[in-house]
Amino acid sequence: MAEITFQNVWKRYPDGFEAVKDMNLEIGDGEFMILVGPSGCGKSTALRMVAGLEDITDGDLVIGGERVNELAPRDRDIAMVFQNYALYPHMTVRENMGFALKLAKVNKSEIDKKVDEAAQILELGAHLDRKPANLSGGQRQRVAMGRAIVRDPKAFLMDEPLSNLDAKLRVQMRTQVARIQQQLGTTMLYVTHDQTEAMTLGDRVAVMRAGIIQQVDTPKVLYED
Ligand code: ADP
Ligand code: ADP
After folding, report:
1. Which atom of ligand 2 sits closest to the CA of residue 51?
2. Any idea where the ABC transporter domain is (predicted)?
């Protein structure tokens, strides 16, 4: 069953610009879907509509069988990791990762358990008491993912999560993102303008240009085209 479905989705901004045009895309349960295309083609807009951070002009968005067009972000049960992962500088890694659960009034022992589990998958166990300033870029990126993972979302949305990292670290983190997604088995919609990233990471790749999805295929089929 599809976990996230775009059905004839349009986005027209108030100035009349059509950033997403008649988008149809089905992302399967547990699937790693990449949305790739040049800067300005509408990728972030599409992602932000799934997150509920941007209204849908026309069409339907379905998450886990439920039409979510009018649902608030917090009621969509999805987690988004941004490019500029703003960690709270005064909090430790553990506090950063557990903060959303604390706000949700989850009890402390449950929070500790969730954070420890996520830290193990993310290989952050040795850094839980550190502050973000004392972490490497890759470690910070993993803390940002950890904040999303602890919420056990139905799906992850990632918007260019590696684009602030240097080239060497970016390659390392690709491997880690793929491993983490496999381990969690959670549906993923991952946005990038980087074709290499698209071809190495996803189960399937949706190619977008000027607001239109042009092709959806496995990296293998796209590579051979
Ligand atoms: P991408 O993520 O692929 O770089 P975006 O989804 O951010 O693309 O933007 C798609 C297009 O929509 C761009 O041309 C951008 O300038 C335009 N756009 C984004 N936000 C707005 C807005 N609030 N009002 C008008 N146009 C916008
Ligand atoms: P809060 O400080 O209560 O988290 P926000 O306005 O940041 O307030 O978020 C409101 C709700 O929206 C949160 O409870 C969370 O579930 C959801 N939310 C916040 N950020 C994101 C995000 N990046 N992706 C998806 N959902 C989010």
Report:
1. 25
2. 4-225
Token pair, residue 203, equals 């189960």
Pocket of ligand 1 (CB under 6 A): 13, 15, 17, 19, 37, 39-45
pLDDT digits (tens, 9 = 90+) for 33-53: 999 999 999 999 999 999 999
Distance between CA atoms of residues 144 and 140, nearest Å: 6
Nearest CA to 190 out of 209, 171, 203, 176 is that of: 203
**Ligand 2 pocket residue status of 51, Cβ below 6 Å:** yes
Q: What is the pLDDT of residue 83?
A: 67
Regarding the beta carbon of 105 and ligand 2, being less than 6 Å apart is answered no
**For the CA of 17, the nearest ligand:** 1
ipTM value for the complex: 0.71
CB atoms within 10 A of CB 86: 8
Task: Measure CA of the first residue to CA of the last residue in the chain; give whole Å.
Answer: 28
Report the separation in Å between the CA atom of 116 and the middle of ligand 2, taken as the mean of its atom positions.
22
Amino acid at 66: E
- Amino acid letter, residue 60: D
Ligand closest in space to the Cα of 104: 2
